[in-house]
Design brief:
Blueprint (H helix, E strand, L loop, with lengths): L2 H4 L15 E5 L9 H18 L3 E4 L13 H10 L5 E8 L5 H14 L4 E6 L6 H8 L4 H6 L1 H13 L27 E5 L2 H10 L3 E3 L8 H11 L11 E9 L3 H19 L9 H6 L4 H12 L2 E3 L1 H15 L3 E5 L5 H14 L10
Parallel strand pairs: 1-2, 1-9, 2-3, 3-4, 4-5, 5-6, 6-7, 7-8, 7-9
């Protein structure tokens, strides 16, 4: 069996000349003129490519009411990916815990663990993954801050359900998340905490859990959050030392001009989202023809400055530099562009740049 299944479920394996393990963060983007079905087919192709080339994980992020993504139901997508892969770790990057009852998440990820034993990760976030109105619709309440404030308690409850170890006398002591331990010895997905600020960084450190930071949209907070995580870290039964990955927007193309042309589509999509005009990811032609106001151009330039893009060698250099600056233990790459073929090509080119194996087979 491959080391991705047999070995350490948290600490990945660096392959080729990569300084740390490389993984994939999939937003299941839907481009103009494409459909959600197209996007989901691309996700399967990316997962299979990532598996064959030695990427360690393929995570799916929870987003809602965003036309340009099709990842509102990570557990459903992960089940589909599990059916089309054999070894790569699959996980949520992440499930937004305040949007769901802890028991429901325990049941969903217990089911995933039963479908793909030993290769499921449960990444959890405390943000809604959407705007306030949609969050209210998801949670059936207008008291949105309450869910975020209760995150540590919700996390503790979820962990109890996963381990089936509520103490005697607890109101939930006779409730069992199934599939789960009540049905016999079984593994369970490791929990990761996700964040874009210091709250989850500190909590992950105090609890001795692995931490994933969203560098791809909160780059200015990356080093402070990682420092806080490491300073707060207490050894646990999960980890004896900190382990942090960062999500990185990265896109490689055969030449620098084409890479710039492709990442501009994601920048325009994000601009529209941030200004209340969400839509499908525009085509490169539409992005090139768009006339940005000075304020919009400032936003786009800032956004693009945090995307590692260019030729494969340039992307490799940029990723190496970022890893050295942050000390990240793992890099999780997200390639945001209009076309699925562009995203697939990027992951292939980056794998080649790091001399990742051309076909990883079970050992």
């Amino acid at each position: 069996m491959d080391d991705a299944i047999q070995g350490d479920p948290i600490r990945g394996t660096a392959r080729g000349t990569a300084p740390v393990p490389l993984s994939v963060l999939d937003l299941v983007t839907v481009g103009e003129g494409r459909t959600a079905s197209d996007a989901l087919r691309t996700s399967v192709q990316i997962a299979r490519l990532a598996e064959s080339r030695g990427y360690g994980r393929h995570w799916v992020a929870e987003h809602h009411s965003m036309p340009g993504v099709a990842s509102s139901s990570p557990a459903v997508i992960l089940a589909h990916l599990a059916a089309h892969t054999e070894r790569i770790r699959l996980g949520s990057g992440g499930v937004m815990l305040p949007n769901h009852a802890p028991l429901v998440i325990a049941e969903q990820f217990g089911t995933l663990e039963a479908l793909a034993p030993g290769r499921v990760d449960l990444g959890l976030g405390r943000a809604p993954g959407t705007d306030g109105a949609t969050a209210a619709a998801l949670r059936r309440t207008e008291r949105l801050g309450e869910g975020a404030d209760d995150f540590p308690q919700q996390l503790a409850e979820l962990t109890r359900f996963l381990d089936d170890d509520f103490p005697d006398g607890h109101p939930y002591s006779r409730i069992h998340a199934v599939p789960g331990p009540v049905q016999g010895p079984s593994g369970r997905p490791p929990i990761w905490l996700l964040g874009s600020s210091g709250f989850s960084a500190r909590l992950a450190g105090v609890l001795g859990l692995p931490f994933a930071f969203a560098h791809h949209f909160s780059a200015q907070n990356t080093i402070p959050a990682l420092d806080l995580y490491r300073e707060s870290f207490r050894p646990s039964g999960v980890l004896d030392a900190p382990y942090a990955l960062i999500g990185v927007a990265a896109l490689a193309a055969d030449d620098e001009k084409e890479a710039r042309r492709q990442v501009l589509t994601g920048a325009l999509s994000m601009l529209r989202l941030r200004t209340g005009r969400p839509g499908l990811v525009p085509t490169p032609e539409e992005a090139e023809a768009y006339r940005f106001s000075p304020m919009e151009q400032e936003f786009v330039d800032s956004w693009l400055s945090n995307i590692v893009h260019g030729t494969p060698d340039a992307v490799r250099t940029g990723l190496d530099d970022l890893q050295k600056r942050t000390g990240a233990d793992e890099l999780m790459l997200t390639a945001n562009a209009h076309g699925g073929d562009v995203r697939l090509r990027s992951y292939e080119l980056i794998a080649d740049a790091y001399e990742l194996p051309t076909s990883v087979v079970p050992s």
